[in-house]
Amino acid sequence: PALVAQASHRLLPEMLGEVYGAFGETEEGTVYDRLAGVAGGAALETLYLERAGAMAGGGLEDSDQTIHELKLIEVASRPASARVEMDATWRVLGTVGHAEHLHVRGNAYTAALVLTPVDGAWKITGFTLNNVDRTDAGTMVAAEDE
């Protein structure tokens, strides 16, 4: 746990990148499998249901999501027995497209996370989203024809 805590500034952006990659998938099995690669237990369920809720409530069935940047702003990690507890803040810059237009997004997230070894790999097993800052949510622009 101590080594994982020390490497959290490198490890967490990779894990979050996989989460956002999973969110961009369209096949439910692929979404779940990609999330399961970096998350387990209650966090896997939370993240999967978060994505499913966005799809159902946001009308994103035919959307195109592109993450342009994921930047870790701050992370405080501490080993705790056989796990690592983290308080992290990160910013995601991307676009979400719907038919005729794109929404530019620049949201910042603050969450408490727990990483635990699961089947020989460190995974996010605890995920509590504490804050979403949408002040840089961006604007809507016309989608380009390809």
Which SSEs are present, and which pair or pack?
Blueprint: H1 2-6, H2 8-23, H3 28-38, H4 41-58, E1 63-80, E2 83-98, E3 101-118, E4 121-133, E5 140-142
Antiparallel strand pairs: 1-2, 2-3, 3-4, 3-5
Helix pairs in contact: 2-3
**What would you report as the Rg, rounded to the nearest angstrom?**
16 Å
Count of discrete alpha- or pi-helical segments spanning 4 or more residues: 4
Distance between the termini: 48 Å
Write the element-wise H/E pattern from the N-terminal end onward.
Answer: HHHHEEEEE
Which whole number gives the mean pLDDT?
Answer: 83
**What structural class results from the helix and strand content?**
alpha+beta
Largest β sheet strand count, sense and barrel closure: 5 strands, antiparallel
How would you explain this protein's 3D organization?
The chain is α+β, with helices and mostly antiparallel strands and about 150 residues long. The chain is about 35% helix and about 45% strand. The protein is built from 4 helices and 5 strands. It has helices at about 1-5, 10-25, 30-40, 40-60; strands at about 65-80, 85-100, 100-120, 120-135, 140. Strands 1, 2, 3, 4 and 5 form a 5-stranded antiparallel sheet that branches. Helix 2 runs antiparallel to helix 3 (about 30-40). The protein is globular and about 50 Å long. The protein starts with a helix and ends with a strand. The relative contact order is 0.19.
